[in-house]
Structure formats: C-alpha cells, structure tokens
Amino acid sequence: MVELQFNRIDLLQVGQLHRRTVRVIPAGEEGTAAQAVALGDESGAALAFVVRKGDLAQRFRTMPPSPASPITTMQTGGPLNSLKDRIFYAVTHSVVGVSKKGREFFRFDTNMTEVIRNMYLEGPDMFLAGDYSMFHYVETRDQDFYMCNDRINDLVCAHITSDSEFDAILACHDKALRVIQGSECLFEIPVPSAATALSLLSQKGTDKTFVYGTNKGELGSVLVNNSEFKNKWTVSSETSSSGINVITVCDFSRSGCRDVAVGRDDGTVEVLSFTEGDMDKPPVTTFKTRLNESIQSIEHGRVINPNYEEIVVGSFSGKIIGFSPEPATLAVPEITDRAHEKQRIAEIEADLKKRVEDTEVEVKRLQGCLQREMDKVKERPALVIPQIDVNVQFSLDAKGSHYLLSIETKCPLEYITFACDVLLEMEEVDHTQCAIMLSPPVPEVCLLSRQHIISLQLSRPARCSLRLAA
To answer: Taking the model in full, what pTM does it have?
Structure first.
C-alpha cells in the first residue's frame, strides 16, 4: 500500500471548540473553486472563511448570543436533493440556520431539556440528540422521540428500513450501536468498547456499511440492512490506544475506494486505506501525524487547492489546520522576455508591498483589541479568577496494564497538583515532558497530609498525558 503525503498548513486560530463544530461547505463541480470552511467556537459566534490565492478571506461572522453560550455542534443542510450549502448550528437548546453569506434565515427553539450535542439534517428532517435523548423533527414539528440507556456520543442517519424515511444510528457509550426506527430500537449492535464516532462508509442497495470508532482506539465496520446486521472487521492502532473522537470518509488516494480519516483524543490524525479496494478486510494506515492537543473535528474538501481532496481539522484550543497533498506555493509563470520579466518583478513587488501594508493594518487592529482587553482586565476586581474549561480523560488501558490520565486546557499548563489515597507509579507519555514530585503522607500535620500529594512541573504545554499504576 502506497503511503499518502500531506503537508500541514495552519489556517486560523479561534476560541475553544466543541466536537463536530467545523464543517466544509459543499461547492459546485470539482476543480472550479475552493470550498469555504464554517465553524463555531465557545463565544457562540459562527464564522466562515475561504482560501483564495494563498490568502485567507473571511466570508462572514455572526454576532454571538447574549448571554454568551458556546456552539455545541454544526451541520450543513439544504432542501432535499440539492446542494447542502447552508449552515446550521446548535446553541444550548436552539438551532440557528444561516446562508452561505451569513444571513440568518432560520431559528428553532426546541423543547429539549438537554444541551444539543449532535445533529443530522436531511431536507425537512432534523434529528437532534442530547446526552441521553434523541428527537426527530419534520419541518420543526415533533415526529419521534427515543431515550437511550447510556450517553449518545454520535448520530448519523440513513435509509435502512425504508427508501422514503430516514432511520437514526446512534453511537452509544454502553458499547453498542443502535438503529432507531421512529421511536423504537430496531437493532442493538454490540461493539468492543464505548462507541464515540460514527460515519457512513458505503451503500449498495439496501446494505449500508458504517465505520465506527471507540474510546479505546479501535476502528470497526458493521453492515446493516432492514433485516439484519453483521460485524465485518475491527482494527486497533499499533502505536496509540487513545480514543477516536471524529471520523470522515473520502477517496484521498484517488483509488476509486473511500479512505477513512480519524482524529484521536491524543492529537493523532490518521488516514487508513483499503488494500485493492476490499472493504471487507481491515484497512491499513497510509498517513499519520500528531498534534499537541485533542482533535475535535475532522472534515474533507477542496479548501486550499481546488484540485485535491484535503483534510481540515479543528483542535481543542481552536486551531484550524489543513493537510493538503500539494504544498502551498506561489506559482510564477516562466519568463522568456526581458521586458516581461521586469513587468512581472514589478507586479510581484507591488503585491508584496500590498501584503505588507495589509499585515501592518491587521497588526494595528489586533494591538487595539489587545489593549482594550487589557483595559478590561485592569478594571476587574483583584479577586476575580477567570473560568477555565478543563478537558479531563481518565481511562483504563487493559493492554498496557495502566490507567491513562489526560488533562487539557486552552491555556498553557505550568503546575498540576492532586492528592490520592494510595501511592501511584507515574510515567509521562512520550509526547509529554514534566518533572514529577511525590510527597508522602504526614497524618500528624493536617487532614490533607494524610494523602499522597503529587505535583507536576511542566514546560507550559496545553495538554498533559500520564500513565498511572497503583
């Protein structure tokens, strides 16, 4: 299997991202123009940008809600059997729709009591899932409802029992995929670990093949039709047991068969391809790279180069990063005439001068924003401590006989201190560097000193991962 080559291109930095809040907006025919990217962060504002001639141009940015609430999920949609170039996003219990130019045309305040975590749109059908419940709306009217036994981690829809109506497939935390027809569970498909991500891989007649990821890092495939299901294969990563957060499928290798791209909780971005296009056998890894923070969104599209399918990922702290098969270079045509050479040099110099001026204007604008924020901080009371969201994952790695503790924030970490009742053996993961200090219990001093105190001094990363064993 030929390995794929992708070049990393950092596109944008926004606020903290929730899962599946970055989407590539579908465009027209292949190779005509670059596709826009829409996203929503913790401020509650949705924005879209497009890359033109190597420069990033903002298409729109909506006003954040008041009071501020984060965007928890995002989807593209549109009329049935048409281009899905409209953006829909969820803020707490409401769904907002905006056009590709940023004009709001839809707002739906649901009757859900849970925060909307997952969403799937197809024409007038809207499937919304909270932590444990799923609602199906048709033209904003209640159609179906299902209460799950455990947490819902992902949601997709497909025609399984009928060619005219959609069925929901839920990835659940109790090691099961559930096929929901109306308000009833049609199938409950067992999987090796808690299912955390799900995507439709292929469809042939009434047979639909889905690919799923788990919190233990397994990637699996299951075939479903209107009468039965079949587990096809399961593969584990040889180098990472970190959970799979998000999945997208696309023919990156141009082989005529879809590849699977996954984003893991430890920051690994991985592409797996099928040998000779055989989807009945486990895929093999053809590309892998690691970022320094967990992957919250992964999408594919023609974003940087209109001629290639590329990968776009969003990280926990809000980094939007593209992976393109072609390096971003400035194409300079061949020059044969001396006069044309001078003219071309003059054009390049003028273009560079304009870019420098635009950059200086942008720097001054950002300096003004920084100064305003610093003035706001000075006006705050001295005892006010800003709230910092912390993403903590604590899981058992049965293969390695240890627990894996991951702590992640949007700001750099310098010190971490925690207490435990038993003495732990601690080892930092290979991509985390820290100094570990242990303090034995001293019962005669105070109640807190009856526990083992563990302090970590770090080199200011945004993520820290540790292996623990008692």
So the answer is: 0.80
